[in-house]
Amino acid sequence: MERHRQMTIFEAVAREQGLAAASRALDVSEATVSRSLAALEKRLGTRLLERSTRGVMLTDAGRQFASDSTRLLRAVDEADASANGLHSEPRGLLTVVTPLLFGERLLMPIALDFLDAWPGIEMTVAYQDRFPNLHEEGVDVAVLIGALPDAYMVARKVGHVRQMICASPAYLEHHPAPVTLSELNGHSLVFCSADNRVLEWRFQRNGSLRSVALKPTLRCTTQVAALDAALGGAGLASCLSYQVHEHLEAGHLLPVLEAFEPEPLPVHLIYREGRRASARVRSFVDFAVERMRQLPMLVS
What we know:
The protein is α/β, with parallel strands linked by helices. The protein has ten helices and 14 strands. Helix content is 41%, strand content 24%.
């Protein structure tokens, strides 16, 4: 019981970034917060906070313990809710991780509609192209574009996306579209290092995979910048179909080398706990899967 109390107080201090703010949030005295923190650090044998006149700052050990505390306290709350018959009502904090452009263009409208439908839900949406460790990072649901790294992951497929090479009509007006891979050498290429550190693009023809080494004219660290450059006529750029769906529909970008496209990549929603997942996770996954499977940019 005392460990749970210490963890609760420390989590509040980390969240509120101060002892006084944590005491107000928990409705306890600041002296109680201070004593609990001292006892916790003594029990763990390490310093969790650096104190100064400007407030408190988490140490490396403190940041890790705060993350673990948040995850464990949430699990306890879910267990209590389930035992009290509240497991069927979606409520509480939901943490979702998604690639940036997928989140902005596909997931966010769905998330907003879900929040309207379930006012008891609070949501954190984190944008990152790196796929997270759900358990270690306290993530409830994540979007994965590509093959499942673990066959035992709890996953729901929502569709596929094409791997494409695109360019603007203005660029292709002065540089005829390549029809063979060898013709890439005569073109200006826009490369995004966020997708691949190796300077190459991958293609497929008659079931055979091939990697083509590149000498890009422009290198970008984000896909947004690479697409903006392609739209501006800078050259050929590699992209996923959902990223450029609206631009293709409007004719602002045109696909090239379609005969050499690799197999489409599957898109999954990955979540923790499977059938034992909380109501907020299960309800969001069901809601999002149904909506995503209707999106034209996630080709079947």
